[in-house]
Amino acid sequence: MNFNLFYISPELILTIGGILVLGLGLSSRKRSGIGAPEIACALVLFAALIPSMLLLIKGINATQFGSLLAVDGFAIFFKILAILSTAIVAIVSFAFFKDRQFHRTEYYSLLIFATLAITTLAASMDLIMIFLSMEFLSITSYILVGYLKHDAKSNEASIKYFLYGSIASAVMLYGMSMLYGLTGTTNILDISTTFRLNPASEPLLMLSAVMVLVGLGFKIAMVPFHQWSPDTYEGAPTPITAFLSVGSKAAGFAVLVRVLATGISPDILDWTPLIIVLSGITMTLGNLIAIPQTNIKRMLAYSSIAHAGYLLLGVAAMTYSPIAIPAILIYLFAYLFMNLGAFAVVILISSRLGSDDIRDYAGLVKRAPVPAFALVIFLLSLSGIPPTAGFFGKFYLFSAAIQSNNPAIFWLTVVAIVNTIISVYYYLNVVRQMFFVRSKQTTPIRSSRPLNFVIGLTMAMTLAILLYPQPFIVMAQMSARMIEGM
Question: What are phi and psi of 87, to 5 degrees?
Fold first, then answer.
């Protein structure tokens, strides 16, 4: 068994760092303001980011612990994505919880442990490891969603998330047990080899694959497993809503792509038609139900569902197009900044106005001009309008789908373009409120330094990904090529 400590150094740093941050609660009773837990969380995430970047640059392609974990560009990409998203969420949490009494050390340690769960989930090469990592992520997420224990909506959101998640996990585990029964192994690569040598009954294999898809579909908020998303997004603390919309979704897609690319490939089971149907339904339902929403967090929840549909388009095309997996990675990387940036502005407004109602954004351009203009950039990017990262992500994704030369995927791309046009309506409705509707309130809304930093950083990256895309394309291609070469 080959073992290299450096290969798993990000996970080791996150594990030790999470425990140390948790231990700070034993020596400090401070419940507000920025102190040791916040600083320690930032240091841990920065320390984990450095070896992750070095591993990506070195182009490592190996396995650890008897092929339980992959150390390849694909896994490392999601490690970087998870650490960056958690770092941004931690910073906006400083502002969100600034004037609230809450258990700070436990909160930041849970964020670090959730990041650890995503990193191990993205690297998992074994069904048991996938299940354990997903449950680790789920448990930390349930707690974080209900962290405002005196808020009825937060409690309700956590309970609903837990109930839906428990059922989805049970169904997925049963599907995994069926795959084990068909192959006698839980390793993804060995499952693929076994099915090629001894083809299984197609109905039984399809049933087991669909049951596994239930659990993964829950994580990415794919229709019809999306019901938890709106209520959870609305009731959870807004920084955790942002984390779920990016970190948890990215983890789900990491597993989905790895399982379908290296485990149950289309030459073993033709799952492409099923993904095409689910993609079309997911993006359409997400966009249509987002239109009448009056709460901006619920609107962004349905928007997140629609974006899951767009990403499923890339999953459907990845067998036929060599740029499909890089397109998925670029889209997720762009989505990280534009979505977290939008949530940073939402945190600012909700903390100052005490409301998430879209109507309360009326006249925001006069009360908070910089956040208002930043939110315009983020919403334009989410709708795929240039010159933003969202436009580049969708252009690359749609190009990959068209290059697949598959008629069904081509028509799904047409559906995706129509849905993109539909999404412009509800995104620009927020812009209309901010710029063209007068507000009775004229008091300026002032932002804090942490929020200013996050809004500035995410806006810069949202523009930079389109204006200078080459480094991001190279990074995505390196990551995709490594997983395809395993």
Answer: -60, -45
